Amino acid sequence: SEGWLSRLKRGLSRTRVNIVGLFSGGVVDDDFLEELEYALISADVGVETSTRILERLRDDIKLKGLKTQDEVRRALRDELERILAPAEGTLNTDQAKPCVIMMCGVNGAGKTTSIGKLAKRFADDGKSVLLAAGDTFRAAAREQLAVWGERNRVEVISQTGGDPAAVVFDAVSAGRARGMDVVIADTAGRLPTQTNLMEELSRIRRSQEKAMEGAPHEVILVVDGTNGQNALAQVRAFDLYAHLTGLIVTKLDGTAKGGVLAAITAMRGDKPLPIYYIGVGEKLEDLQPFNAHEFASALVG
Ligand code: GDP
């Protein structure tokens, strides 16, 4: 079957003005550079970052004497890689025992799917994993987690209609008592505009601190890559209430908006949130560590 990298490439090539398709072997002139800037903005790199990239490319063209579109393409790929590289990061579950990972995001972002994929990864690495079904709103979410758990021989702690902070507190306490390696706490999907639900997120966070000093060790926002620039607003809002330590960006196999990773990375200056994984499909193996070089290459060919 088709590899994840080519699926990622196919998704990213769906820009209105396809970046890869721009490099047709023609001349490098002002028209070409303007089209390139427009293509970057269309791919949701963001206006500011796109303008900065173009400034650097124009400098390169002058100073390094780049002549062909292929040389410009390579300079663009290097520039994107340079922007994205600080966001590479490894999710280290050995930092504590159990390592408590809190997951949050809006509904439909791919949170439950990503938790399943993560649990499988950890279980495959020989780690014992406990899942806390902190999404006490949707029965379907609990059932989905239970299915994942069974499939991967991972226990799920849940409570119908319970208080999510209490469920998560119990799970972290149980994880400690049983000497588990990893506890993953799911939380119900919520929108940044739902202030009371966002405040609940702080409460769920605090209940983990109460159950174990230093917990949660990781707070990961799962964000849908097809949301483009809207993803930036989500990162800001969730960070405010939950203090994020990292991101998982999903659905990059189906989007032309992959440039948003550059925008997210540029948002925090020289200290971007690590993008631990990217989602490139619905199957278990479709959660891949984020690699700046691979991603920049997929974006511009
Ligand atoms: P949640 O509401 O955040 O828990 O979202 P779900 O995990 O239920 O995912 C919503 C939908 O997105 C499901 O149909 C998933 O199969 C799909 N999905 C999740 N991650 C990816 C991905 O990386 N690529 C694709 N193509 N679909 C995904």
Tags for this entry?
301 residues, alpha/beta, 8-stranded mixed beta sheet, 12 helices, elongated, binds guanosine-5'-diphosphate, GTPase activity
Describe the structure in brief:
This protein is of the alpha/beta class and 301 residues long. It is built from twelve helices and eight strands. Strands 3-2-4-1-5-6-7-8 form an eight-stranded mixed beta sheet, with helices on both faces.
Protein architecture, described:
By secondary structure, this protein is of the alpha/beta class. Helices cover 49% and strands 12% of the residues. The chain has an eight-stranded mixed β-sheet, with helices on both faces. The radius of gyration is 21 Å and the shape is elongated. Bound molecules: guanosine-5'-diphosphate. The site of guanosine-5'-diphosphate (GDP) has 18 residues, from helix 6.
SSE order and pairing:
Elements: H1 4-12, H2 19-22, H3 30-42, H4 47-63, H5 69-84, E1 99-104, H6 111-124, E2 129-132, H7 139-151, E3 155-157, H8 164-177, E4 182-185, H9 195-211, E5 218-224, H10 230-242, E6 246-250, H11 260-267, E7 275-279, E8 287-289, H12 292-300
Parallel strand pairs: 1-4, 1-5, 2-3, 2-4, 5-6, 6-7
Antiparallel strand pairs: 7-8
Bound molecules: guanosine-5'-diphosphate.
Q: Given the C-alpha coordinates, what overall shape results? A: elongated
Q: Portion of residues in helices?
A: 40-55%
Please tell me the overall pLDDT. Answer: 90
Radius of gyration in whole Å, from Cα? Answer: 21 Å
Distance between the termini: 21 Å
The parts where pLDDT drops under 50 for at least 5 residues are: none
Q: Give a list of the ligands.
A: guanosine-5'-diphosphate
Instruction: Give the number of helices.
Output: 12
Total E-strand runs: 8
* Element-level helix/strand string: HHHHHEHEHEHEHEHEHEEH
Oligomer class:
single chain
Based on secondary structure, the structural category is alpha/beta
The largest sheet, given as strand count, sense and whether it forms a barrel, is:
8 strands, mixed
List the strand order in the largest sheet: 3-2-4-1-5-6-7-8
Proportion of beta-strand residues: 5-15%
Enzyme class: hydrolase
Catalytic activity: GTP + H2O = GDP + phosphate + H(+)
EC number: 3.6.5.4
Subunit structure: Part of the signal recognition particle protein translocation system, which is composed of SRP and FtsY. SRP is a ribonucleoprotein composed of Ffh and a 4.5S RNA molecule.
